[in-house]
Amino acid sequence: MPTAYAAAKDSTTARTTPVTMAPRPNWPAFCQRRVNVDFCSSDVGLATTGTGDSRREVAGLVRPATMRATNAHTTANNDRIVESMMDDNTDITVTDSVPLVTSPSLSSSSDVWPAPQVQPSGAHGSDAVDDVSVLRRRLCRERFAIPLVTISWLIILTVVVSSVIRIERWEVAPGEALTVSDRIDVNAKEGGEKAPERFKPKNRIRFVTAFAGQLTALDAFVGWIDPHVQVDTFVEHFGEQDPADQRQIAFQSMFGAQQVAEYVAFSRLGYDATFSQGAAVVEEPLCLENPDPLSACKVLNVGDTITSLDGKPVNKLTDISPIMAARAAGDVVDITVQPRDGSKKQNKKVKLIANPDDAAQTLVGFTPADTRTVDLPIEVTIATSDIGGPSAGLAFTLALLDELSPGELMGKRKVAATGTINEDGEVGAIGALVQKAVAVRDSGATVFLVPKDQSEDEIKAAKKAAGSGVRIVAVGTLDEALHVLDELGGDPLPRINT
Prior knowledge:
3 domains; Ribosomal Protein S5, domain 2; 13 helices; 6-stranded antiparallel sheet; alpha+beta
């Protein structure tokens, strides 16, 4: 039977956005390492002077223009001419198909340019070897520069494009383990009590999130190879819900979790804490098999606030039950709703249904959101910004108890906790336990309190993901959680107000 305080959905998770990076290969370094390998020094056309040592002779021709001759020679002036001609850094193409003409009968004053004489050994021989190495490196760079640059740009372009274009895949990935006390604000209320002392514990409890959002192509690739990231299709991730509807449910669940945590914690500390009923807000329409076109499943939307039913005003959720007592399944009633976007109120007709679990009970056909607010003698807020879901209930409760009581509730341990909590202090199951276990491990926490209602397989998988450095303890109630902390060396919880 759907109630005003139905248990939160396990599939609801906290929402944020991941960032990925990819390494880039160092191509110039690769080419530098390969300069002396055959593919970087394949045969090229070399000019010959007839001496048979073509490589050294080419090296003499391509010697940098800044070099000076070290040995006197009859062709020194001609060498300078060659160097002068090469000083403009213009590329010279040489080939062995047209050898340079040489003649021993030519004098130094001849109009024919003789080939420079190359020393087979000594200083010039060493320089020639160096110049061959330079030539080989140059040929390597010229041969591979354009292809490597092209490949590099293609890789960069692929990474950039794949990190921007979103695809029809959604993730459930490890999020963060965040301290709660930094988000708590406690102040005096006008006409109420003064703000209680805050004790600022050294080791503060952490609540845990999981990332959930649409993926880019690059994110999806990384997710598929990461064993702790769940990559879903639209149907796997949202089912029959609209993404905006699920987001609305998540934020409403977070609000409810905060209110219940405040009620449980302050009641435990001896404060006068009560609930005030809230508006009748549709958390999720109840869809039966083959629903009627006028059923709430087809007419009502997530986030609608019911303001009147069958001509009678509805100011709070509990106003609906007396109206329904006079109606039967199959009756069609008029309903006025305020859409969640604040637009103009809408009048609708809804066909009532029988409760699937109790045919004698008549229902409108929706699961109501928990819109209760806790009444306290002080003002308490817990900032959660854009984080949704009810799974932080246990962590919020423990954080309030630790902040507002002396001693160290966590002892010397770094503790994280996850699990819903109801007004009786019972801890309920949550979603994405494995991903949250990884987040706890990465945060450096050593103890992780989880709901006992999780399946054995889920807890086993979470322990494997967290590793030996994290102790995972399953608890079913707030009292069990406090007992575990006491056994781990935490200070017992005093009752500070009566």
